[in-house]
Design goal:
Elements lengths: L3 E6 L21 H11 L1 E6 L2 E6 L2 E7 L4 E5 L5 H13 L2 E5 L7
């Protein structure tokens, strides 16, 4: 089953307790910022407006940048370590990663 993630830049400290169902995004962080964030974590991205195709951790992925978040849909199931590495990278940048299917913080 393909893996789907949602990345949200948050105004809260990543170390703080976060309820993913009541998560506020950073209102100053817009789709262009999410595109730039995607460029930091993915390679070979080809964009068409705010939708793109690229590669993350050796896996093909579809990316959609919105004013609220960055959606990542991998074309296939990805290993736990790929998701873990991505999560660590995002926390360092002040963003959180949610499982798109369950809305659980990873």
């Amino acid at each position: 089953m393909p893996t789907s993630l949602v990345i949200v830049k948050t105004p809260y400290s990543p170390e703080g307790a976060i309820d993913p169902l009541d998560l506020d995004n950073d209102p100053s962080f817009k789709s262009g910022d999410y595109r730039a964030l995607a460029e930091r974590i993915a390679s070979a991205i080809v964009w068409s407006d705010d939708e793109g195709q690229g590669e993350i951790g050796g896996h093909a992925a579809s990316l959609i940048a919105t004013d609220a978040c960055l959606f990542i849909n991998f074309d296939d199931d990805v290993a736990t370590d790929v998701v873990r590495n991505l999560t660590v990278q995002m926390l360092e940048l002040g963003a959180v990663v949610l499982d798109a299917d369950s809305a659980e913080t990873l």
